[in-house]
Every structure is written in structure tokens, then in C-alpha cells.
Design a protein that fits this description.
single chain; 99 residues; 44% helix
Length: 99
């Protein structure tokens, strides 16, 4: 990981902390998906953290997920909070899913 990537990771973690979520950690929001993490899968190693200009896009969905987790008292699992276009195409995701 180069210094720019490290700054982005730390910045995204700080952004997530600032959302004051009750039930989600920045680590959960950085989950890149099973295909990204599993050798031999089509998307292995292809996903990345979202660029800073897209960070605000996670607010509505993660806020709702946090409220659902609180209301129902049950876990809500984030499979991938963001998919870049390369990863999304590799795993056969919907064309609009990476934005």
C-alpha cells in the first residue's frame, strides 16, 4: 500500500467514525466482498476503497442499515459497501452498482 492509499484508508476510517454509527465500524464499511478476498475468484484483488468524492454516497444506506440493526436487534452484514467498476464487471454486477 502506497502513501496515497494509506491516506485514503485512514481518511475513510475517520469519515466513517464521524457518522456516529451505533452498530457499524469503519472496518465493516471497508469490506470489499468475498470475490475480492478469495484467491481463484474472478474479482480477486480487484476492488478498492471508494475515492473521497464518493464517501458521502454511503451515508443514506449505512444510516438506514444502522437504524434497522437498532430497531430489529439483529445483525445487518455489509457484503461490500463499494465496488469499483473493474471489480463490479468481473463479478457480473449491475452496471450502476459501482457508483
Amino acid at each position: 500500500m502506497n502513501i496515497t492509499e494509506l491516506e485514503r484508508v485512514e481518511g475513510f476510517a475517520a469519515f466513517c467514525e464521524g457518522l456516529n454509527l451505533l452498530h457499524f465500524s469503519p472496518l465493516e464499511l471497508r469490506n470489499k466482498g468475498k470475490a475480492h478476498e478469495t484467491p481463484g475468484y474472478r474479482g480477486f484483488g480487484l476492488n478498492a476503497d471508494p475515492p473521497p468524492e464518493l464517501w458521502p454516497n454511503v451515508i443514506p444506506a449505512i444510516t438506514m442499515a444502522d437504524r434497522m440493526r437498532e430497531h430489529f436487534g439483529r445483525p445487518v452484514v455489509i457484503l461490500s459497501a463499494y465496488r469499483n467498476a473493474v471489480y463490479n464487471a468481473a463479478i457480473g454486477g449491475a452496471p450502476s452498482a459501482s457508483t
